[in-house]
Design goal:
The complex is a heterotrimer of chains A (233), B (82) and C (190).
Chain A lengths: L2 H27 L12 H10 L1 H33 L4 H13 L1 H15 L5 H16 L2 H17 L9 H13 L19 H27 L7
Chain B lengths: L7 H22 L3 H19 L7 H23 L1
Helix pairs in contact in B: 1-2, 2-3
Chain C lengths: L2 H5 L10 H25 L1 H8 L4 H26 L5 H28 L8 H28 L13 H26 L1
Helix pairs in contact in C: 2-3, 2-6, 2-7, 4-5, 4-7, 5-6, 6-7
Classes of the chains: A mainly alpha (233), B mainly alpha (82), C mainly alpha (190).
């Protein structure tokens, strides 16, 4: 195995690390998984931050770190897309630009969780507002992620090689993932029910689907690295 | 050249449209909702088997689809009417 | 189906990877339907009263529209398989009927909104608008796929490169039809 495929492997594994850090940060540390009920009264939101201050602050560090570590992984995806597209690669550029701001929101989500928990003597309404901003930053990237998945899916399916660089089912997987993120577009409209930011269809379905997508991407990319697909014609 | 007006697909379509109209009429007449639900999933089964071509698909695919139809229909029946 | 395929246990319509998408969509829509059924149980009176506000005639009109477009699609797939020139007109008819569904939905939404029945009117309206809108996105994507397939015919009205493209487009289009059948029964009829 040459240096290049070792680098690709490392970048891909970085995604697994980022996913784990994000999950540990948001779930056992910050206790924001599942998210706070958007219908919760302002005073109770503020009390939640006061009660879980340390966990949220440490979780914030993990979430912001994870947001950066996603980028080597996304760069590995982009490298595959570039290989598929060749010299003229509009979808690869689109992918690179979309993820640049689609994943940076995760950094800001961690930042706003931190700011909200930082001064517990702040008025309730301010803490609740910072909390709302954090949650919107956390769930609204469904919008860029939808386009990102469509771009990835189309690029993979465009591959005309007899043995495609990435398997075609992965292309369809990406299109499916994109479609399921659609309920996430409307979280701003609801405070209760399945389409609110803690609802079955706007949170749980996209969260599970994102988990499946993420793991299958890693598996398929590692398989492609193993057979040295990037060195093929 | 084979006819596109008289073949198996047209027969399936006629059954589907008839079932749609009938289940619409029964709600007007006030018949049981359970019947409507079962008719809807019977239509789903027909669309999958005949139009999607699952009838000729490998057995695991056909059975996965048919199990989906039966399972979802069963859960919905239980939730709506039990 | 050729004898070879019969011996190997059947023919996968379209390409295998597409069924990852279709299977995944079926699973998630099952979650949608069950979520609705649970909410219906919890707020029975509200759901029953709100459902009567829907325009059942327009809902009913849309069902044969999609069923007939599905029939045209199935015929178009069969026509491509036997190299029949009627494939393209059949596919165009599918697209026309599918577009009709979109137009009817637009009128239905407009009428509902002008009567003050909007997204956040109550918990039933949320399900009604969100489910039909997500389904409508499927219809629009399906129409896009069908237009792409229609552009692949050569001048003689044949489709070079085999039936996989049209079979796959067809499978997705039938999925759109199939999901509507259940949505129609759940939202309008039950």
């Amino acid at each position: 195995m040459d240096t290049k495929s070792t680098t690709m492997k490392l970048c891909t594994f970085m995604g697994a690390l980022a996913g784990t850090l994000m999950f540990v940060g948001i779930w056992p540390l910050a206790r924001m998984f599942p998210p706070l009920d958007p219908a919760l009264p302002v005073a109770q939101v503020a009390d939640y931050y006061r009660a879980h201050q340390t966990g949220i602050l440490v979780g914030g560090i993990l979430i912001t770190s994870a947001s950066v570590l996603f980028f080597p992984f996304l760069a590995a995806v982009a490298t595959f897309l570039k290989k598929i597209e060749g010299a003229i690669s509009p979808l690869t550029w689109a992918f690179v630009m979309i993820v640049a701001y689609g994943f940076v929101t995760l950094f800001f989500a961690g930042l706003f969780f931190t700011v909200a928990a930082y001064r517990t003597d702040r008025p309730d309404a301010e803490i609740a507002m910072l909390s709302d901003i954090a949650f919107f930053l956390f769930v609204m990237p469904a919008v860029p992620a939808f386009v990102q998945n469509v771009v990835t899916g189309v690029a993979i399916l465009q591959d005309k090689r007899a043995r495609p660089i990435l398997p075609r089912w992965l292309g369809y997987m990406n299109l499916w993932t994109g479609l399921l993120l659609l309920p996430g577009f409307a979280v701003g409209l609801f405070k209760t029910g399945p389409f609110a930011w803690n609802g079955v269809l706007a949170f749980w379905v996209p969260a599970v689907v994102f988990g499946i997508w993420f793991n299958l991407m890693i598996v398929a990319m590692l398989a492609a690295i193993k057979r040295d697909a990037l060195a093929e014609a | 050249m084979p006819s596109i007006l008289a073949n198996r697909a047209v027969l399936v379509w006629a059954v589907l449209v008839a079932a749609t109209l009938l289940s619409f009429e029964t709600t007007v007449l006030g018949t049981s909702g359970a019947v409507i639900l079962v008719v809807a999933f019977a239509k789903v089964l027909l669309v999958g088997r005949e139009f999607m071509g699952l009838r000729d698909a490998p057995a695991p695919m056909l059975w996965a689809f048919q199990s989906w139809v039966v399972a979802v229909c069963g859960v919905l029946l239980a939730l709506f009417f039990a | 189906m050729t004898t070879a395929e019969r011996r190997s246990g059947g023919h996968v319509p379209g390409e295998e990877g597409l069924w990852v998408f279709i299977g995944g969509d079926l699973v998630v829509f099952a979650v949608f339907f069950i979520t609705y059924a649970v909410a219906h149980r919890q707020e029975y009176a509200l759901f029953e009263a709100s459902r009567r506000l829907l325009d059942r005639q327009l809902g009913l009109l849309n069902t044969p529209l999609l069923l007939t477009s599905s029939l045209c699609m199935a015929q178009a797939v069969a026509a491509v398989r036997r190299d029949d020139r009627r494939a393209r007109p059949l596919l165009l008819a599918t697209i026309a009927l599918g577009s009709g569904f979109v137009v009817v939905k637009a009128f239905e939404y407009a009428a509902k909104i002008s009567h003050g029945f909007t997204l956040n009117t109550n918990s039933f309206s949320i399900y009604y608008y969100m489910f039909t809108a997500i389904h409508l996105v499927h219809v629009l994507i399906g129409l896009g796929v069908l237009c792409f397939a229609a552009s692949r015919f050569d001048k003689a009205g044949r489709m070079p490169g085999g039936a996989a493209l049209i079979e796959g487009s067809g499978a997705f289009w039938h999925l759109v039809d199939l999901l509507w059948i259940v949505l129609f029964a759940l939202l309008y009829l039950l």
